[in-house]
Amino acid sequence: xxxxxxxxxxxxxxxxxxxxxxxxxxxxxxxxxxxxxxxxxxxxxxxxxxxxxxxxxxxxxxxxxxxxxxxxxxxxxxxxxxxxxxxxxxxxxxxxxxxxxxxxxxxxxxxxxxxxxxxxxxxxxxxxxxxxxxxxxxxxxxxxxxxxxxxxxxxxxxxxxxxxxxxxxxxxxxxxxxxxxxxxxxxxxxxxxxxxxxxxxxxxxxxxxxxxxxxxxxxxxxxxx
Length: 225
What we know:
- The chain is of the alpha+beta class.
- The chain has one domain (about 10-225): Protein Transport Mog1p, Chain A, CATH 3.40.1000.
- It has six helices and eleven strands.
- The protein has helices spanning about 10-20, 70, 75-85, 90-95, 130-145, 210-220; strands at about 40-45, 45-50, 55-60, 65, 100-105, 120-125, 150-160, 165-175, 180-190, 195-205, 225.
- The longest helix is centred in the middle third of the chain and has 13 residues, at about 130-145.
- Residues about 1-35 have low confidence and may be disordered.
């Protein structure tokens, strides 16, 4: 049985956003062989990784690195980021929990302007009866509560190969090492077989257009069992 996150679906977006912070540390360290998920092949020019216990697979460019959450954000970096970004402190602490919902973390090792563009996927068992609209509403409400939110959250309905989804685009002001950066974040939310999935992409605003096609290929490779 998949672990259920305490507290229902409220706060789920906060945990997904917390992985945006990991990008500040992702450009260094980490092993090349992921413990989880498991690489199962290639399709459409992407390497496909499966997390069978969570019922999904997704592809990433072959030059990107897939690493564990612990590698992406070691304890020392996580604690420093929590001090510098109080809004994220509870979520960053939750990342140390074995039941944390982040199942895939991958990043482009071509670090630009000190930031590693990345994608993470979370999967969480939903309470009975929760459908996509409620899942999206809860996540969007949490994002809009961030003090570091810059501008509005743009929302649009999209159709992925695996079914209907919602795309959220927004920017967050985050601090690392005393320096503030604005991060462009794109999330896709979908629901399948009682599980909510969030695919989150993070990059710097000035590089967004460079990654648009890459992000589209990745999210369209998402397959739900």
